[in-house]
Amino acid sequence: MLDFGANKLIGSIPNQLNSLLNLTHFWVDENNLTGTIPNWIGNFSFMYALSLSDNNFEGSIPNAFGLLTSLGRFVIPSNKLSGTVPSSVYNISSLYYITFTQNQLQGELPQNVGTTLPNLEKFSGGVNKFTRSILVSLSNASKLRILDFAESGLTGKLPAENFGSLRSLFKLNFDDNRLGNGKTGDLNSLSFLANCTNLEVLGFSRKCFGGELPESIASLSTKLIIFTMGGNLIRGSIPIGIANLVNLTNLGMEQNYLGGSVPDVIGKLQKLQGLYLKLDQFSGTIPSTLRNLTSVTRLFMEGNKFEGSRPPSLGNCQNLMLLNLSSNQLSGTIPKEVIGLSSLSIYLSMSNKFFDWFSTI
Protein backbone atom coordinates (compact mmCIF):
# COMPACT_ATOMS: atom_id res chain seq x y z
CA MET A 1 0.00 0.00 0.00
CA LEU A 2 1.34 3.41 -0.98
CA ASP A 3 -0.45 6.58 0.15
CA PHE A 4 0.74 10.10 -0.75
CA GLY A 5 -2.73 11.66 -0.63
CA ALA A 6 -3.57 15.19 0.55
CA ASN A 7 -0.13 16.74 0.33
CA LYS A 8 1.31 19.44 -1.93
CA LEU A 9 3.14 17.22 -4.39
CA ILE A 10 3.91 18.63 -7.82
CA GLY A 11 5.27 17.21 -11.05
CA SER A 12 4.39 13.86 -12.59
CA ILE A 13 4.19 10.36 -11.13
CA PRO A 14 7.84 9.16 -11.16
CA ASN A 15 8.61 6.21 -13.41
CA GLN A 16 10.74 4.67 -10.64
CA LEU A 17 7.51 3.43 -9.06
CA ASN A 18 6.89 1.05 -11.96
CA SER A 19 8.81 -1.74 -10.21
CA LEU A 20 6.33 -1.96 -7.29
CA LEU A 21 4.47 -4.84 -8.90
CA ASN A 22 2.90 -6.04 -5.64
CA LEU A 23 0.99 -2.82 -5.04
CA THR A 24 -2.67 -3.35 -4.15
CA HIS A 25 -3.50 0.23 -3.03
CA PHE A 26 -2.12 3.39 -4.65
CA TRP A 27 -3.35 6.81 -3.52
CA VAL A 28 -1.99 10.13 -4.80
CA ASP A 29 -5.26 12.06 -4.58
CA GLU A 30 -5.55 15.72 -3.53
CA ASN A 31 -2.17 16.95 -4.75
CA ASN A 32 -1.00 19.16 -7.61
CA LEU A 33 0.36 16.43 -9.86
CA THR A 34 0.49 17.04 -13.61
CA GLY A 35 1.33 15.22 -16.81
CA THR A 36 -0.30 12.07 -18.10
CA ILE A 37 -1.25 8.94 -16.19
CA PRO A 38 1.52 6.34 -16.77
CA ASN A 39 0.67 3.27 -18.83
CA TRP A 40 2.79 1.09 -16.55
CA ILE A 41 0.15 1.24 -13.83
CA GLY A 42 -1.60 -1.37 -15.96
CA ASN A 43 1.17 -3.82 -14.95
CA PHE A 44 0.05 -3.83 -11.31
CA SER A 45 -1.96 -7.01 -11.61
CA PHE A 46 -2.80 -7.08 -7.88
CA MET A 47 -4.11 -3.50 -7.83
CA TYR A 48 -7.36 -3.23 -5.88
CA ALA A 49 -7.75 0.50 -5.11
CA LEU A 50 -6.48 3.28 -7.38
CA SER A 51 -7.15 6.93 -6.48
CA LEU A 52 -5.75 9.74 -8.65
CA SER A 53 -8.46 12.31 -7.94
CA ASP A 54 -8.11 16.06 -7.42
CA ASN A 55 -4.95 16.64 -9.41
CA ASN A 56 -4.19 18.15 -12.80
CA PHE A 57 -3.62 15.04 -14.89
CA GLU A 58 -4.15 15.52 -18.63
CA GLY A 59 -4.43 13.28 -21.64
CA SER A 60 -6.44 10.08 -21.81
CA ILE A 61 -7.09 7.19 -19.44
CA PRO A 62 -4.58 4.48 -20.44
CA ASN A 63 -6.06 1.48 -22.23
CA ALA A 64 -3.75 -0.63 -20.07
CA PHE A 65 -6.08 -0.02 -17.12
CA GLY A 66 -8.25 -2.76 -18.57
CA LEU A 67 -5.55 -5.20 -17.41
CA LEU A 68 -6.23 -4.41 -13.74
CA THR A 69 -8.53 -7.39 -13.36
CA SER A 70 -8.52 -7.24 -9.53
CA LEU A 71 -9.54 -3.58 -9.37
CA GLY A 72 -12.36 -2.73 -6.99
CA ARG A 73 -12.07 1.05 -6.59
CA PHE A 74 -11.25 3.29 -9.57
CA VAL A 75 -11.24 6.96 -8.53
CA ILE A 76 -10.06 9.67 -10.96
CA PRO A 77 -12.42 12.69 -10.64
CA SER A 78 -11.43 16.36 -10.72
CA ASN A 79 -8.65 16.22 -13.27
CA LYS A 80 -8.31 17.40 -16.88
CA LEU A 81 -8.61 14.03 -18.56
CA SER A 82 -10.02 13.84 -22.09
CA GLY A 83 -10.95 11.19 -24.62
CA THR A 84 -13.06 8.19 -23.65
CA VAL A 85 -13.12 5.73 -20.79
CA PRO A 86 -11.49 2.57 -22.25
CA SER A 87 -14.14 -0.04 -22.94
CA SER A 88 -11.93 -2.66 -21.29
CA VAL A 89 -12.40 -0.92 -17.92
CA TYR A 90 -16.11 -1.72 -18.06
CA ASN A 91 -15.27 -5.42 -18.27
CA ILE A 92 -13.53 -5.56 -14.87
CA SER A 93 -16.29 -7.41 -13.04
CA SER A 94 -14.69 -6.83 -9.62
CA LEU A 95 -15.22 -3.04 -9.88
CA TYR A 96 -17.72 -1.80 -7.34
CA TYR A 97 -16.70 1.86 -6.99
CA ILE A 98 -15.99 3.93 -10.10
CA THR A 99 -16.00 7.70 -10.39
CA PHE A 100 -14.55 9.97 -13.07
CA THR A 101 -16.59 13.15 -12.51
CA GLN A 102 -15.35 16.62 -13.42
CA ASN A 103 -13.08 15.85 -16.34
CA GLN A 104 -13.42 16.43 -20.07
CA LEU A 105 -14.33 12.90 -21.03
CA GLN A 106 -16.66 12.21 -23.93
CA GLY A 107 -18.06 9.49 -26.14
CA GLU A 108 -20.74 6.93 -25.42
CA LEU A 109 -21.30 4.95 -22.26
CA PRO A 110 -21.69 1.22 -23.00
CA GLN A 111 -25.27 0.11 -22.73
CA ASN A 112 -24.38 -3.19 -21.04
CA VAL A 113 -22.42 -1.68 -18.15
CA GLY A 114 -24.93 -2.94 -15.59
CA THR A 115 -24.33 -6.47 -16.85
CA THR A 116 -20.54 -6.36 -17.08
CA LEU A 117 -20.20 -4.57 -13.72
CA PRO A 118 -22.77 -6.40 -11.58
CA ASN A 119 -21.08 -5.42 -8.30
CA LEU A 120 -21.39 -1.66 -8.79
CA GLU A 121 -22.16 0.34 -5.66
CA LYS A 122 -21.09 3.77 -6.88
CA PHE A 123 -21.06 4.95 -10.50
CA SER A 124 -20.41 8.66 -11.02
CA GLY A 125 -19.43 10.41 -14.23
CA GLY A 126 -21.00 13.84 -14.02
CA VAL A 127 -19.59 17.09 -15.44
CA ASN A 128 -18.30 15.46 -18.62
CA LYS A 129 -19.48 15.40 -22.24
CA PHE A 130 -21.09 12.05 -22.89
CA THR A 131 -23.51 11.60 -25.78
CA ARG A 132 -25.88 8.77 -25.08
CA SER A 133 -29.04 7.96 -23.21
CA ILE A 134 -29.21 6.63 -19.66
CA LEU A 135 -28.04 3.06 -19.23
CA VAL A 136 -31.10 0.87 -18.88
CA SER A 137 -28.91 -2.14 -18.04
CA LEU A 138 -28.03 -0.57 -14.68
CA SER A 139 -31.13 -2.27 -13.31
CA ASN A 140 -28.97 -5.40 -13.19
CA ALA A 141 -26.57 -3.75 -10.74
CA SER A 142 -28.74 -4.53 -7.72
CA LYS A 143 -26.13 -3.28 -5.21
CA LEU A 144 -25.97 0.21 -6.73
CA ARG A 145 -26.16 2.94 -4.06
CA ILE A 146 -24.95 6.08 -5.88
CA LEU A 147 -25.70 6.96 -9.51
CA ASP A 148 -24.60 10.49 -10.36
CA PHE A 149 -24.28 11.77 -13.93
CA ALA A 150 -25.18 15.45 -13.49
CA GLU A 151 -24.07 17.77 -16.30
CA SER A 152 -22.88 14.96 -18.52
CA GLY A 153 -24.74 15.51 -21.81
CA LEU A 154 -27.10 12.53 -21.54
CA THR A 155 -30.30 12.49 -23.58
CA GLY A 156 -33.38 10.32 -23.95
CA LYS A 157 -36.11 9.18 -21.62
CA LEU A 158 -35.63 8.58 -17.92
CA PRO A 159 -36.04 4.80 -17.49
CA ALA A 160 -37.24 5.02 -13.90
CA GLU A 161 -39.11 1.74 -14.31
CA ASN A 162 -35.65 0.14 -14.43
CA PHE A 163 -34.30 2.11 -11.50
CA GLY A 164 -37.25 0.95 -9.43
CA SER A 165 -35.48 -2.37 -8.96
CA LEU A 166 -32.47 -0.67 -7.37
CA ARG A 167 -33.60 -1.11 -3.78
CA SER A 168 -30.25 -0.01 -2.33
CA LEU A 169 -30.18 3.28 -4.23
CA PHE A 170 -29.13 6.15 -1.96
CA LYS A 171 -28.40 8.93 -4.48
CA LEU A 172 -29.84 9.44 -7.96
CA ASN A 173 -28.67 12.64 -9.63
CA PHE A 174 -29.23 13.59 -13.26
CA ASP A 175 -29.26 17.39 -12.90
CA ASP A 176 -28.47 19.33 -16.09
CA ASN A 177 -29.09 16.74 -18.78
CA ARG A 178 -31.81 16.48 -21.43
CA LEU A 179 -34.00 13.65 -20.30
CA GLY A 180 -37.48 15.00 -20.94
CA ASN A 181 -39.47 16.21 -23.94
CA GLY A 182 -41.35 19.02 -22.18
CA LYS A 183 -44.68 17.21 -22.42
CA THR A 184 -47.29 15.81 -20.07
CA GLY A 185 -46.27 12.46 -18.70
CA ASP A 186 -42.55 13.12 -18.38
CA LEU A 187 -42.78 12.75 -14.61
CA ASN A 188 -45.11 9.77 -14.38
CA SER A 189 -42.04 7.59 -14.05
CA LEU A 190 -41.42 8.98 -10.59
CA SER A 191 -43.91 6.48 -9.24
CA PHE A 192 -41.46 3.65 -9.90
CA LEU A 193 -38.95 5.26 -7.54
CA ALA A 194 -41.25 4.51 -4.63
CA ASN A 195 -39.53 1.11 -4.51
CA CYS A 196 -36.22 2.82 -3.71
CA THR A 197 -36.86 2.96 0.01
CA ASN A 198 -33.30 4.06 0.87
CA LEU A 199 -33.24 7.04 -1.49
CA GLU A 200 -31.90 10.22 0.16
CA VAL A 201 -30.82 12.42 -2.78
CA LEU A 202 -32.91 12.92 -5.93
CA GLY A 203 -31.72 15.45 -8.52
CA PHE A 204 -33.76 16.19 -11.64
CA SER A 205 -33.05 19.90 -12.21
CA ARG A 206 -32.80 21.46 -15.67
CA LYS A 207 -33.88 18.48 -17.77
CA CYS A 208 -36.79 19.84 -19.87
CA PHE A 209 -39.34 17.79 -17.93
CA GLY A 210 -42.90 18.87 -18.61
CA GLY A 211 -46.33 18.04 -17.24
CA GLU A 212 -47.46 18.18 -13.63
CA LEU A 213 -45.92 16.90 -10.44
CA PRO A 214 -47.62 13.53 -9.83
CA GLU A 215 -49.29 12.61 -6.57
CA SER A 216 -46.82 9.72 -6.43
CA ILE A 217 -44.35 12.16 -4.88
CA ALA A 218 -46.04 11.24 -1.61
CA SER A 219 -44.74 7.68 -2.08
CA LEU A 220 -41.08 8.61 -2.41
CA SER A 221 -38.76 7.48 0.35
CA THR A 222 -39.30 9.23 3.66
CA LYS A 223 -35.49 9.17 3.99
CA LEU A 224 -35.23 11.71 1.15
CA ILE A 225 -33.21 14.76 2.26
CA ILE A 226 -32.48 16.53 -1.06
CA PHE A 227 -35.08 16.85 -3.84
CA THR A 228 -34.34 19.21 -6.75
CA MET A 229 -36.53 19.75 -9.82
CA GLY A 230 -35.77 23.37 -10.67
CA GLY A 231 -35.41 24.75 -14.19
CA ASN A 232 -37.92 22.49 -15.90
CA LEU A 233 -41.26 23.06 -17.67
CA ILE A 234 -43.43 21.72 -14.84
CA ARG A 235 -46.93 23.15 -14.44
CA GLY A 236 -49.77 22.73 -11.98
CA SER A 237 -49.32 22.91 -8.23
CA ILE A 238 -47.23 21.31 -5.51
CA PRO A 239 -49.05 18.15 -4.36
CA ILE A 240 -50.00 18.15 -0.69
CA GLY A 241 -48.36 14.72 -0.49
CA ILE A 242 -45.03 16.56 -0.33
CA ALA A 243 -45.72 16.72 3.41
CA ASN A 244 -44.81 13.02 3.69
CA LEU A 245 -41.16 13.79 2.91
CA VAL A 246 -40.54 14.81 6.49
CA ASN A 247 -36.74 14.51 6.37
CA LEU A 248 -36.20 16.94 3.49
CA THR A 249 -33.44 19.48 4.13
CA ASN A 250 -33.42 21.00 0.61
CA LEU A 251 -36.38 21.38 -1.76
CA GLY A 252 -35.82 23.02 -5.13
CA MET A 253 -38.85 23.73 -7.37
CA GLU A 254 -37.61 27.04 -8.78
CA GLN A 255 -37.84 28.29 -12.38
CA ASN A 256 -40.81 26.20 -13.48
CA TYR A 257 -44.41 27.15 -14.28
CA LEU A 258 -45.84 25.99 -10.97
CA GLY A 259 -48.81 28.02 -9.80
CA GLY A 260 -51.66 28.27 -7.35
CA SER A 261 -51.07 28.58 -3.64
CA VAL A 262 -48.09 27.12 -1.87
CA PRO A 263 -49.75 24.42 0.27
CA ASP A 264 -49.86 25.00 4.02
CA VAL A 265 -48.45 21.51 4.53
CA ILE A 266 -45.05 22.84 3.48
CA GLY A 267 -44.76 23.89 7.11
CA LYS A 268 -44.60 20.22 8.10
CA LEU A 269 -41.15 19.91 6.51
CA GLN A 270 -39.52 21.13 9.69
CA LYS A 271 -36.02 19.93 8.77
CA LEU A 272 -35.84 22.15 5.69
CA GLN A 273 -32.70 24.26 5.47
CA GLY A 274 -33.15 25.47 1.89
CA LEU A 275 -36.47 26.19 0.16
CA TYR A 276 -36.28 27.37 -3.46
CA LEU A 277 -39.58 28.48 -5.04
CA LYS A 278 -38.40 31.48 -7.04
CA LEU A 279 -39.39 32.39 -10.61
CA ASP A 280 -42.56 30.32 -10.71
CA GLN A 281 -46.18 31.51 -10.91
CA PHE A 282 -47.34 30.99 -7.34
CA SER A 283 -50.14 33.26 -6.13
CA GLY A 284 -52.20 33.89 -3.01
CA THR A 285 -50.62 34.69 0.31
CA ILE A 286 -47.35 33.34 1.61
CA PRO A 287 -48.42 30.58 4.02
CA SER A 288 -48.05 31.44 7.68
CA THR A 289 -47.02 27.84 8.33
CA LEU A 290 -43.53 28.76 7.12
CA ARG A 291 -42.95 29.87 10.71
CA ASN A 292 -42.58 26.17 11.53
CA LEU A 293 -39.42 25.97 9.40
CA THR A 294 -37.16 26.84 12.29
CA SER A 295 -34.13 25.18 10.65
CA VAL A 296 -34.39 27.03 7.34
CA THR A 297 -31.37 29.19 6.43
CA ARG A 298 -32.19 29.99 2.78
CA LEU A 299 -35.66 30.99 1.57
CA PHE A 300 -36.11 32.15 -2.03
CA MET A 301 -39.66 32.96 -3.23
CA GLU A 302 -39.00 35.93 -5.51
CA GLY A 303 -40.46 36.39 -8.97
CA ASN A 304 -43.97 35.05 -8.28
CA LYS A 305 -47.43 36.59 -7.82
CA PHE A 306 -47.77 36.45 -4.06
CA GLU A 307 -50.18 38.99 -2.55
CA GLY A 308 -51.07 40.20 0.91
CA SER A 309 -48.74 41.42 3.60
CA ARG A 310 -45.13 40.55 4.11
CA PRO A 311 -45.47 37.77 6.69
CA PRO A 312 -44.28 38.61 10.22
CA SER A 313 -44.47 34.87 10.96
CA LEU A 314 -41.07 34.48 9.28
CA GLY A 315 -39.64 36.05 12.41
CA ASN A 316 -39.97 32.61 13.95
CA CYS A 317 -37.32 31.25 11.55
CA GLN A 318 -34.45 31.88 13.92
CA ASN A 319 -31.75 30.43 11.61
CA LEU A 320 -32.72 32.34 8.46
CA MET A 321 -29.65 33.86 6.76
CA LEU A 322 -30.89 34.62 3.23
CA LEU A 323 -34.43 35.78 2.39
CA ASN A 324 -35.73 37.00 -0.96
CA LEU A 325 -39.41 37.86 -1.45
CA SER A 326 -38.83 40.50 -4.12
CA SER A 327 -40.77 40.92 -7.37
CA ASN A 328 -44.13 39.88 -5.96
CA GLN A 329 -47.26 41.90 -5.18
CA LEU A 330 -46.81 42.13 -1.43
CA SER A 331 -47.97 45.11 0.58
CA GLY A 332 -47.53 46.67 4.01
CA THR A 333 -44.43 47.38 6.01
CA ILE A 334 -41.43 45.16 6.47
CA PRO A 335 -42.23 43.27 9.70
CA LYS A 336 -40.08 44.16 12.67
CA GLU A 337 -40.07 40.46 13.56
CA VAL A 338 -38.09 39.79 10.37
CA ILE A 339 -35.79 42.79 10.65
CA GLY A 340 -35.02 41.72 14.22
CA LEU A 341 -33.63 38.32 13.17
CA SER A 342 -30.00 38.29 14.24
CA SER A 343 -29.36 35.36 11.90
CA LEU A 344 -30.40 37.36 8.81
CA SER A 345 -26.85 38.46 8.09
CA ILE A 346 -26.21 37.74 4.40
CA TYR A 347 -29.09 38.84 2.18
CA LEU A 348 -32.56 40.33 2.53
CA SER A 349 -34.83 41.58 -0.25
CA MET A 350 -38.54 42.36 0.12
CA SER A 351 -38.86 44.92 -2.64
CA ASN A 352 -41.61 44.61 -5.22
CA LYS A 353 -38.86 45.23 -7.73
CA PHE A 354 -36.72 42.31 -8.77
CA PHE A 355 -33.01 42.17 -8.01
CA ASP A 356 -31.42 38.84 -8.86
CA TRP A 357 -27.74 39.53 -8.32
CA PHE A 358 -27.67 36.92 -5.55
CA SER A 359 -29.58 34.28 -7.51
CA THR A 360 -26.71 31.82 -7.68
CA ILE A 361 -26.56 31.25 -3.92
UniProtKB/TrEMBL annotation:
Keywords recorded for this protein, A-Z: Cell membrane, Glycoprotein, Kinase, Leucine-rich repeat, Membrane, Receptor, Repeat, Signal, Transferase, Transmembrane, Transmembrane helix
Compartments (UniProt record): Cell membrane
GO terms, molecular function: kinase activity
Gene3D superfamilies assigned to the protein according to its UniProt record, in alphabetical order: Ribonuclease Inhibitor
GO-annotated cellular components: plasma membrane
Presence of keyword Transmembrane: yes
Top-level taxon: Eukaryota
A Pfam family: LRR_1
Name by which UniProt lists this protein: LRR receptor-like serine/threonine-protein kinase
Source species of the chain: Pyrus ussuriensis x Pyrus communis
Lineage of the species this protein comes from: Eukaryota, Viridiplantae, Streptophyta, Embryophyta, Tracheophyta
